[in-house]
Amino acid sequence: GAGVSQSPSNKVTEKGKDVELRCDPISGHTALYWYRQSLGQGLEFLIYFQGNSAPDKSGLPSDRFSAERTGGSVSTLTIQRTQQEDSAVYLCASSLVGTESNQPQHFGDGTRLSIL
Amino acid sequence: EDQVTQSPEALRLQEGESSSLNCSYTVSGLRGLFWYRQDPGKGPEFLFTLYSAGEEKEKERLKATLTKKESFLHITAPKPEDSATYLCAVQGGGTYKYIFGTGTRLKVLA
Question: How do residues A58-74 score in pLDDT, each as one tens digit?
C-alpha cells in the first residue's frame, strides 16, 4: 500500500525566501508528526497533529515556522524568511493512535532543504 | 527528562561478524521502545516495537531485546546490505512524543 509521501524531495532556495513542504500521510492514520534531522543529530520534534485536536507546536524553533493539516489528512510545513540554519532534512511521519498500546510511526523519505 | 543514548556511534563489521547495538534510555513509564533502520537519503523504516522488559523480537538476522534500562539490537552474521543507520526511540507514559537517539551507523564489509 501507499506509504507517507513528501514533496518536494529536494528544495534549494535563497536566504530570506519562504518555503512550503508537503506531507501526505498513510490513509487512516490520524496522528501526524514533523521532525527535523540535521547531520549527526537525532530527530528533532517540531509539531504533532492528532485528529481534530489542537496541534502541539511546542517543538517549532521560531515563529517563522508554522504548519497546518487540512481535512485531517495532508499537512504543510511553512518556513518564512528562511535562514541558513534552517538547512536540514524535514521528515514527516504518521501513525495510528492506539488506545492501549503504541503504534509505530511510518516515515516519508523527507525533504532535503538547502538555504543558500 | 526522557533521554535516549545509543552506542556505539559507528560500527564496522566484517561480513558474518555478529555484534550488538545498544540503546540506553530513561523515561517515565515506558509505553514502547522502537527500532528503525535508516538508509542514506531515505526516511527511517520501522523494524520493531518492544513494550516490556524481557520481551524479544526477531526479523531475519536481527533480534531486539529489552530490559528496564536498555535495549539491544543483535545482528547475527551480518551482510553488506545490513549497512545502515539504526535508530532507537522511546515513548513515555502520558505523552505522544517519541524521543529519538542519534543512531548507530553500521557498515558491513564484504
Answer: 999 999 999 999 887 99
How does pLDDT run along chain B (110 residues), one tens digit per residue? 889 999 999 999 999 999 999 999 999 888 899 999 999 999 999 999 999 999 999 999 999 999 999 999 999 999 999 999 999 999 887 778 889 999 999 999 99
Asked whether the beta carbons of residue A42 and residue B101 sit closer than 8 angstroms, the reply is: yes
Helix, strand, coil shares, percent, chain A, to 5: 5, 45, 50
CA–CA separation, B101 and B105 (whole Å) = 12
Nearest to B44 among A48, A97, A107 (CB): A107
Residue B75's CB: how many other CB atoms inside 10 A? 22
Q: Where are the beta strands (DSSP E) in chain A?
A: 5-7, 10-13, 19-24, 31-37, 43-50, 65-69, 75-79, 88-95, 106-107, 111-115
Nearest CA in chain B to A43: B100
Those residues with Cβ within 8 angstroms of residue B83's Cβ, 6 or more apart along the chain or in another chain: B106, B107, B108
Phi, psi (rounded to 5 degrees) for A84: -60, -35
